[in-house]
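[09:14] KT: can someone run the structure on this one? pasting the chain below
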Amino acid sequence: MADWEIRKLQILRTLRERGTVTATAEVLNMTPSAVSQQLANLSRQLGVDLLRARGRRVELTDAARLVLRHAEAVFEQLERADAELAAYVHGEAGEVRVGAFSTAVPALVVPAVTALRATHPGVAVRVREAEAQEAYELLAAGDVDVALSLAAQAPTAADPRFTRVPLLADPLDVALPAGHPLARTDGLRLADLAAEPWIFGGSGPWSDITHAACETAGFRPYQAHTAAGWTAILAMVGAGMGVALVPRTAVVSREGVAMRELHADRPVRHVVAAVRRGAGEGAAVGTVLTALHTAARARLAESAPRR
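[09:31] RB: done, structure tokens below
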């Protein structure tokens, strides 16, 4: 039987993800020569070529991809073993590290942590604010245990490294100046706002979400002002400078702003959590995911605007 060494398989997997020996070495805190040596040793142990030269770079052979396909099951089982061992040793005690995007921290993570302090005082949660790309890099590297993001920014369900856990479908409500005629209209639809000046980010996921929602409702939004932070966006809405779509979990009360729930063509954004495949079976991680679900439901219930 071939000599399968976990550390060397992890190096090979990181090379597949990072693309170069130099980038792999940087992530793993190794020298490029050490990475090359470990992969050469693994190739000899398995009796197959794992890499081939392509110009000044290397790429994985078909044999290497076959090895990694089977190795993913090993990594998953090891994650499961770690999770079960932690649950056995600590019960419901333990540390869970959560990486979450900016609006999810106050809306979901902080309420979940507050509740856990009362119900599971042995579970310590460490929070790290991180946007999607960084959060998933941290998750893959083992630096966080749970990553929160919008579903559109999450890895696909086919990614063998992660398990996705839906958290909530977050409705997008419309923010209007308090004195706007449509602020008192019953049955407000997104299409009713086609002629309004809009406020949203110049690029990134929120720009994409706003454009997609408006185009689904049958119009292209006129972007009068550009801002990425909700404080700035709502300040401009309150000053009568335009309207904006705002996720319900991100809403904060602001004078001069009327939040209205949309009808018929109401858009939503989907928020998901992700864990390393197999790690979600750990008691502490599962407890944190349950607390996040509870916080999401409570947030939606308390922030529902006028219809």
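[09:33] KT: thanks! The radius of gyration is 24 Å.
[09:34] RB: yep, looked fine to me
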